Amino acid sequence: MRNIDGKLTLIDSAQVFHWEETENGYTAAVNGRIMTDRDEDEEAQTYFDDQRDYNAVADRCRGIPEAETAIKMLPGLRVLNQPCWEALIAFILSSNNNVKRIRSLVLSLCKNYGDRYTYRSREFYGFPGAETLCEVPIDELAQRVKCGYRAQYLVKSAQMVKQGFDLEILKELPLEKARTELAKLSGVGPKVADCVLLFGCRHSDAFPVDIWVKRLMEKWFHETGSVQYLRDRARQILGSECGLIQQAMFHAARTGMIDLE
DNA sequence: AGCCAGGCTGACG
DNA sequence: CGTCAGCATGGC
Known about the structure:
The structure is a single chain. This protein is mainly alpha-helical. It has helices at residues 42-47, 54-59, 65-73, 84-94, 99-113, 130-133, 138-145, 150-162, 175-182, 190-200, 211-221, 227-238, 242-254; strands at 20-22, 25-30, 33-36, 116-119, 122-125. α4 crosses α5 (99-113), α7 (138-145) crosses α8 (150-162) and α9 (175-182) crosses α10. The protein starts with 19 loop residues before the first strand and ends in a 7-residue tail after the last helix. The protein binds a DNA duplex through residues 14-15, 91-92, 94-102, 104-105, 142, 146-151, 153, 186-192, 195, 208-213, 226-227, 250, 254.
């Protein structure tokens, strides 16, 4: 992730899970091609969110000291624009898992069922498409990827996408409508839906609430309650780019930069 | 060894 | 509408 200041890389960003470290950089198969963190083509610029003025995001945090703190702790942080299908599959696998294991599951899924690419004599694997995943036997998927009960979520959601569920339109829909649509997929609840919308559909006001963000919402704003409640309160408190701030909050909390008591 | 992890589903009230 | 047990797996 460009200008990451050594604090956060594409390996442990927890936004994306299949990037590999290569000589002086990072490499992954993305959307049917090989991409590196030094690519400057249009697709790569979009993926890395190059066009956004992150200084302006930080400026809009003034008056909210907590948000300002989190943003300043993570200079160079980006929120990626991944293909929504890739974000969907990765975050279905993410549920009730830790970041390291999510990475191993995603890598295993891609290696078992995705397309293989060779780049500088190393092999990389992309996400399998819906047309592939929808035909994989659930027990075989569970056994080979070791994703447990999430195997059926992957296959069912892949079948819905294959049958015509439109992921691309989620980018155009208003946030609430997009959430409702995404929740129709298997393995997608309120938290995973907001991850897909934030990381894959350019909804920068989506606000994923996991255990770390929940803890921070309580410590900072004395807010407790359901994922839906906390997410809506965060939108009120932090504004229309709360998702970008969420990413800083998440990392600051998860990596121990902020004392949670 | 036992709790925890970028939670969801289905049942039940 | 909200609540909650059960769930596969492995990191720590």
